[in-house]
């Protein structure tokens, strides 16, 4: 999945969990776990993107 797709999925999960609908506990836990995984994955992707930008800037300043 792309970063944007992951972010969209994460947004959907948050909306589901915050909607006030009475989801079964097990389903809520599965959504929460999926959301945590998506956050972790998005953070990793952002860190890699930041590193790439830093490398480009270092190369450009040399």
Characteristic key phrases:
85% helix, 0% strand, 62 residues, mainly alpha
Task: Give the helices and strands, then pairings.
Blueprint (H helix, E strand, L loop, with lengths): L2 H16 L6 H37 L1
Helix pairs in contact: 1-2
Terminal CA distance: 35 Å
Q: What structural class is derived from the secondary structure elements?
A: mainly alpha
SS element count, helices: 2
Q: Which whole number gives the mean pLDDT?
A: 94
| Main beta-sheet annotation | none
Radius of gyration: 17 Å
Helix content percent band:
over 70%
The low-confidence parts are none
Topology pattern, helix = H, strand = E: HH
In terms of DSSP E residues, the strand content is: under 5%
- Number of distinct beta strands: 0
Shape field: rod-shaped
Structure description:
Helix content is 85%, strand content 0%. It has 62 residues and is an all-alpha fold. Helix 1 packs antiparallel against helix 2. The protein is rod-shaped, with a radius of gyration of 17 Å. The termini are far apart.
Task: Briefly say what this structure is.
By secondary structure, the chain is an all-alpha fold.
């Amino acid at each position: 999945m792309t970063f944007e797709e992951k972010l969209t999925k994460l947004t959907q999960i948050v909306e589901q969990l915050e909607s006030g609908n009475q989801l079964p506990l097990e389903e809520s836990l599965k959504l929460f776990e999926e959301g945590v995984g998506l956050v972790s994955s998005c953070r990793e992707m952002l860190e890699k993107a930041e590193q790439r930008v830093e490398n480009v800037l270092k190369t450009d300043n040399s």
